[in-house]
Amino acid sequence: xxxxxxxxxxxxxxxxxxxxxxxxxxxxxxxxxxxxxxxxxxxxxxxxxxxxxxxxxxxxxxxxxxxxxxxxxxxxxxxxxxxxxxxxxxxxxxxxxxxxxxxxxxxxxxxxxxxxxxxxxxxxxxxxxxxxxxxxxxxxxxxxxxxxxxxxxxxxxxxxxxxxxxxxxxxxxxxxxxxxxxxxxxxxxxxxxxxxxxxxxxxxxxxxxxxxxxxxxxxxxxxxxxxxxxxxxxxxxxxxxxxx
Length: 244
Fold this sequence. Notes:
By secondary structure, this protein is mainly α. Helix content is 59%, strand content 0%. The chain is built from 10 helices and no strands. α4 (47-73) runs antiparallel to α5 (85-100) and α7 packs across α8 (176-195). The longest helix has 27 residues, at 47-73. The radius of gyration is 20 Å and the shape is elongated. Residues 122-142, 202-209, 211-216 and 239-244 have low confidence and may be disordered.
């Protein structure tokens, strides 16, 4: 029942705007979604299953937004136009989404706060160094039959793959390695901005999910300039050769 599933995930997200995940009760999520608690358990199996589905939905929405941003910024067919525009648009979307949605930020950075669901493990999940961080819930592996949730490496890789796919039709075949390197650099610059942004005017509560998604953060202009400059430097030879 897709409608019930989406309603339950919406209710879980809303609950997370109000209290830490450890204080979110399944019966309250079910009531907010207008279904029975049994329906909730039938759909997700457990609170852990609900958390995993919520994180997966938010990261899927993030990646879909990357694809939309790349598509909107792509030049018209047959013309290179502003080669950096798709990457700049995807970078701005990433920063805005990470600012507005700590679940996406945690997946991108591997930094899971104690207000959030337990951090995933597995090949695509964050790999903690040393002892577990205080306050972070115990990490759990993916249940049988379900792949691991995407972590920083996979999300950066998919950002790069989508960027190369969006730009590749208007790039000479011999210059595709340079394009791939430029896209990866742009993705990593964007991720570094998400990890350590400039001091904001008003710091949000760590791990707190805002009830409304941010429309635009002021620092997206700065990261856009940074990504555009880096992309232009790394593809300058290619663009010069293309014009000659």
